[in-house]
Amino acid sequence: MSIHPLPPPREPTGLGRLPAARWFLFIGAVAGVAFVTGVVVIMVLLSGAFDLNPRPEVTAQLQELNVALIVLFAVLLACGVGLALIVRHAVLKPVAQLTEQVRTVAGGDFDHALHVDRPAELAELSSHIDSMRARIVSAWRVASDQAEELRRSNGELEQFAYVASHDLQEPLRKVASFTQMLEQRYGPQLDERAKQYIYYAVDGAKRMQLLINDLLDFSRVGRVTGEKTVVESGAALDTALENLSATIEDTGAVITRDDLPAVTGNRLQLTQLFQNLIENAVKFRSDEAPRIHIGAVRSGAMWELSCADNGIGVEPKYADRIFLIFQRLHARDVYPGTGIGLALCRKIVEYHGGTLWLDGDAAGRGATFRWTLPPAGDDDD
Ligand SMILES: Nc1ncnc2c1ncn2[C@@H]1O[C@H](COP(=O)(O)OP(=O)(O)OP(=O)(O)O)[C@@H](O)[C@H]1O
Ligand SMILES: [Mg+2]
């Protein structure tokens, strides 16, 4: 996890474009000119007064005034120079120091501490900014550690699901085939009840095989069949329809489609996606023959595809639940299945960077599923 580089600082507007140091320089220069002009004017006036040959008491008074003015000018000059030094050392330098530190942090060195000792106001400001930096960095580290931990445990879980389902296949095949052999070889010696028990055992083993195969498919997404290329989604749909041709023929399903786009993805997974959605649309049909439409519209940077049917539909309150693994809304003897199809579809779409959802606002009866996919590389305008 990384923080993106910060955008360049916003440009100041109007008079704010001039740095504060230049303002001080400008005002200092005006004050200096006024000061020198004042000194010259007063000196000229005083020498004019001396030229008039005033009375001795007035001359003495003028001389005292002259000395007082020289002292005053000297004090003013000292104050001016002192002020300039204070502004430079107590304001401008610490501001430049703080700016430099902030720039370093903004440049990506988030551990760089911000600190200036003076003046008091800037010291307080820098300490507040620094505690803000430290808190954000620590929250970011926690979030980043958690994300890493989540990624790791997700990977482990997927690995576990894969290994478990893969390694379970063999013993299960043995259970199913030996139970069937038992029935074939000793069938005549068995009574009705024993035959029924064997039937249940074989049925259970077959169902478990189905579940394990689905689980294996599920855990493969993003692991084994991960390569992404430019895929014509129309071609993926054709393959899915071919795989489902027997079911489609049996049920008299009519499938129509828009012009389907080329997307970036994995051909095998996109075929699985269409296949599961169309299989559902056919399986959960109403009394009418299934009518299924595959649509595609451009939605921002992605393509939005849809699969709409005229079947029994899904109650809106189950719109999220149906995507959970092994979640089904009907008894297995009414509609067969393991409840993994939609979870697999969602995993495939998310692996492609899109989202899959049940459209609760779709007009008409039946169910409409929508999902987004990234366009093919040369099409992402
Ligand atoms: N097109 C649809 N019309 C009505 N209900 C649907 C539709 N698609 C899915 N559902 C509901 O969502 C549930 C989950 O679907 P999912 O495809 O995951 O499982 P399944 O079809 O029952 O089993 P599997 O696909 O693993 O064989 C289904 O049991 C069904 O109740
Ligand atoms: Mg299904």
TrEMBL record:
The keyword Membrane applies. Keywords: Kinase, Membrane, Phosphoprotein, Transferase, Transmembrane, Transmembrane helix, Two-component regulatory system. Residues 163-377 form the Histidine kinase domain. Its EC number is 2.7.13.3. It is found in: Cell membrane. It comes from the Bacteria. Residues 89-141 form the HAMP domain. SUPFAM superfamilies: ATPase domain of HSP90 chaperone/DNA topoisomerase II/histidine kinase, HAMP domain-like, Homodimeric domain of signal transducing histidine kinase. The keyword Phosphoprotein applies. It holds the Pfam family HATPase_c. The chain crosses the membrane at residues 20-46, 67-87. GO terms for molecular function: phosphorelay sensor kinase activity. It catalyses: ATP + protein L-histidine = ADP + protein N-phospho-L-histidine. Its main location: membrane. GO terms for cellular component: plasma membrane. This is histidine kinase.
